[in-house]
Design goal:
7-stranded mixed beta sheet, 6 helices, alpha/beta, single chain, 209 residues, globular
Length: 209
């Protein structure tokens, strides 16, 4: 099932178009802003793991061999690249087209959900967090590494100016704050780290029992 809104379809088209060059485009930002973030997030995962918005599979090499991995993404072209990467690195994973706003996964069936740089581009991020809560087992963990609004006023003003462009060209929201939705959905926040002038946020949260 897919959450078929006009914005969801627009975002799907954007990421299908960006897929062939995504790995090249993200390298600079990975080095400057997000260094170590993917390995940190994947190291927190255990059991049956769902990665939402798996993209081109840049996290695949960081997961422990013991975990069972399911990855979904709204973009078929992103998933195709991720599947090629999984074969290249020898990673067994179920990678499929799917919508984080309407997961085709049974209730309380997943041990860990991982999200790296994904809630920023999901049209209804609150709905995605609600779906994560639904599919997590009691006391399951939600691990995030996201770019968020900086607490520093000057940087936040600059982010706000760029946000208007990013949302329209890439469906990428620069000034969201996932913690608001996690708390609203009743997650217990265990870890919060802010890095790079507060632009990057790492969060580990646990679903209530």
């Amino acid at each position: 099932m897919t959450c078929c809104t006009n914005e969801t379809e627009r975002v799907r088209r954007i990421w299908d178009k960006l897929a062939p060059r995504y790995d090249k485009d993200i390298k600079f930002f990975e080095r400057v802003l997000f260094s170590g973030g993917r390995s940190w997030a994947c190291s927190q995962a255990s059991g049956l793991v769902l990665e939402i918005a798996v993209g081109t599979g840049r996290n695949l090499g960081y997961y422990s061999p013991e975990i069972r991995l399911l990855g979904i993404d709204i973009s078929p072209r992103m998933i195709a690249i991720a599947q090629e990467r999984a074969r290249a690195v020898g990673r067994q994973a179920d990678l499929r087209v799917g919508d984080a706003q309407a997961l085709e996964i049974p209730d309380e069936s997943v041990d860990t959900v991982v999200s790296t740089l994904s809630l920023c581009s999901i049209p209804d991020d609150r709905k995605a967090v609600s779906e994560v809560k639904r599919v997590l087992r009691p006391r399951g963990r939600f691990i995030l590494m996201e770019h968020v609004a900086s607490p520093l006023r000057l940087i936040r003003v600059f982010q706000g100016a760029l946000d208007w462009i990013a949302v329209r060209t890439e469906g990428d929201h620069l000034i969201r704050e996932p913690l608001v939705h996690l708390k609203a959905e009743g997650f217990r926040i265990e870890v919060v780290e802010r890095l790079k002038w507060g632009i990057v946020e790492r969060v580990a949260a646990r679903k209530a029992s």
